[in-house]
Automatic annotation (TrEMBL):
This is Phosphohistidine phosphatase. Gene3D superfamilies: Phosphoglycerate mutase-like. InterPro entries: His_Pase_superF_clade-1, His_PPase_superfam. It comes from Sphingobacterium wenxiniae. Pfam families: His_Phos_1 (PF00300). SMART domains: PGAM (SM00855).
Length: 166
């Protein structure tokens, strides 16, 4: 079995929360779009571009969905294959884990796009590394030998890197 990789992405910088728009509907700002493009290009260098064995799952909140589309465009992943997950918005880390546990073994690479604190808490739980992902950052997790997504649980992944703007 090939080693499985999991990339956890926090959405890019979005509009400030205000009275005129629901939090769920906030869009990315120019700075967020630019940073997402930059970090997605850095991720492209790191991953194998084998989209048939890749799955992308994203929150449907505007800022996460827009971030996922930016990354998929750069990675060459067809936007129509994104699995939209409305429940990723305000999801608990264990809910994210449950969704990853449902990923079929035919996938070698999974990218998830979501929100803090759940994405950072999720990385901490599966890798035992306390992190706080900033906007657009990517936590690169490698599952332990002979661990499939269905077996992912506490401390079964290794945090290889965090891809940042710097």
């Amino acid at each position: 079995m090939r080693r499985k990789m999991l990339y956890v992405v926090r959405h890019a910088k979005a509009e400030d929360y205000g009275m005129g728009k629901r939090d769920f509907d906030r869009d990315l700002v120019e700075k967020g779009i630019a940073r997402a493009n930059h970090i997605a290009k850095k991720l492209l260098v790191k991953i194998e571009n084998e989209t048939e064995r890749t799955l992308v799952i994203s929150s449907t909140a505007n800022r996460a969905a827009q971030t996922a589309k930016i990354f998929c465009n750069i990675l060459g992943y067809p936007e129509e294959r994104i699995q939209w997950e409305p429940t990723f918005y305000e999801a608990h880390q264990l809910f994210l884990l449950k969704k990853i546990n449902d990923v079929p073994s035919l996938y070698d690479t999974v990218l998830i796009f979501g929100h803090n604190p759940s994405v950072s808490d999720f990385v901490d739980y599966v890798s035992d590394h306390i992190i706080n992902l900033s906007t657009s950052e990517v936590a690169c997790l490698q599952l332990e030998d002979n661990i499939d997504y269905s077996s992912l649980s506490a401390n079964t992944a290794f945090l290889q890197a965090i891809i940042t703007e710097k």
